[in-house]
Design goal:
This protein is mainly alpha-helical and 150 residues long. The protein contains seven helices and three strands, in the order E-H-E-H-E-H-H-H-H-H. It is 43% helix and 5% strand. It has a three-stranded parallel β-sheet with strand order 2-1-3, with helices on one face. Strand 1, helix 1 and strand 2 form a beta-alpha-beta unit. Helix 1 crosses helix 7.
């Protein structure tokens, strides 16, 4: 299959931002597909339905551990960032006390042997609390990408 400049994505903000930065406003990709998840995007790429996709680096590294052969099947052609990782969220119906307890457990688990073991299994050093302003970079990218049409 020749390169059709097709894109598959789970969320298109970074794609549109990078196109905006390079001066592309419309028509760069012949088609854009909303895959719904990183795994679905990867599956579309591997079966040849699309030529390129973006994957979160954390997801890609986890997939390499689960499926080492992917290292031979994929080629990273660009990286974007740094960007903050997606936030952990809780349902709004949970009591504030419960949300606070979950946050406390998550942000202190690196201090506990069992917690460190769980973090290590996830190839994570620790979780830390951040302010909403930590995501201002993502909001700026979204504003800059508003004019790009996929």
């Amino acid at each position: 299959m020749g390169l059709q400049r097709a894109l598959v994505a789970f969320g298109l903000r970074h794609h549109r931002f990078e196109l905006a930065r390079s001066g592309e406003e419309a028509g760069f990709f012949s088609k854009a597909v909303e895959a719904g998840s990183h795994q679905a995007a990867l599956d579309l790429l591997l079966c040849g339905d699309v030529d390129a996709t973006a994957l979160d680096s954390t997801v890609l590294e986890a997939m390499y551990v689960l499926r080492p052969a992917l290292r031979e099947q994929l080629r990273v052609i660009a990286t974007w960032g740094p960007s903050p990782v997606p936030p952990w969220v809780a349902a709004s119906h949970l009591a504030e006390e419960t949300r606070s307890k979950i946050k406390s457990i998550m942000t202190s688990m690196h201090l506990d042997a069992r917690g460190r073991e769980s973090l290590q299994e996830a190839d994570t050093a620790r979780f830390c609390a951040v302010e909403d302003a930590s995501y201002d970079t993502i909001r700026r990218m979204a504003r800059e990408a508003e004019g790009v049409i996929l």
